[in-house]
Amino acid sequence: MAKMQLVLLDADTYFGGMLSAYIRSSEFAERFSFHWFTSRAEGFRFVEETRQPQIVLVHEAWLPLHEALFALKTGCTVIVSETERTGGVLEYPVLFKYQPLNRLLSSVASHYNEYSYLEPLRGSKRSGVITVYSAVGGSGKTVTAVHLAAQLAEHGERTICLSLERLPSRGWYETEPMESETSETFSRLLYYAKTRPEQIPAKLEQLKRTHPTWKYDFIPPLTHPAEWDDIEACDIRRLFEGIVKAGIYDRIIVDADSSDGPLTTELLKVSGLVLWPLTDDVIQLQKSKDWFESRRLRHQQEAEELQAKVRFVLNRFTGTQANDMASYSFKVSARLPYVPEWKNVAQADRMLLRGFADEAAALVRGGGSP
């Protein structure tokens, strides 16, 4: 779709310049054509004369709203305020202008997508779902998933990392609380997967967070393990179809639960690539081999389809191997180094190590080819 006209009516030259510069240099550049007016007369004249759909951000000092905004049929109006508050004026939402700009613009896009009858405002990216999975616990799934997301984001790819573990490693997904509902974020997204999947792209804009250091997006994971029991396989498919449809990510990285059931099966089906961490441990290797053999006995065709997109990643590699991976029918496509400092860690963010997932990221960028 063509770019949406984003019109700012605000006399604040600092804020207007900052927003303009941010849009030009961010992912929002492909979705918004930005126009900024500090003059009431010029701004409202532009709104009246423009025939294309437009989103108008109007500063609260310009209230009461001009009749041109009430006549706006193709687009929406959002009021920006100097103070933090919730609610709105009539049907127009009020947003705090000094929040992080990515959050502000995401809220604007979310409001438009939810309430406009026109084509939703989406990106043009074609997301690929990459799941990090192992049926054996302790293989390093979460560390691999998080570092992979960070590495891809560092290379300029729009990336989101999702935890689908029954007991998620919450320390990797913590950030400064932005609102009281943060702890229920993933639950809210699942609610829409169950009831209104067409709203997932709009809600994703609203619910995603950005890691302050590593710059990948994420959804704070499930808070209560019992919520896992309410998820159905069709919810998994709808969830990822909605995220892909949003068109704002190059990569969707999933930290999967180690369980083997309908949810895992559906997740592996919707994934374009599956990274399976292995360790140089005879017990873990045998368990992994047994899992694949069990799959073949139960669902041979599904097992063959899965095998075609699984790539094995040797984790905690010290430079030498005690086991012959080929004897277990495993071909290693990438290696992750052993990091002795990770034996005892007080904070998860101290485990973020640049370059840790270089080979895994190269594997993903190569479409699964080593």
From TrEMBL:
> Which Gene3D superfamilies does the entry mention?
Ntrc-like two-domain protein (3.40.50.10850), P-loop containing nucleotide triphosphate hydrolases (3.40.50.300)
Q: Which InterPro entries match?
A: DNA_Partitioning_ATPase, P-loop_NTPase
Name of the protein in its database record: ParA family protein
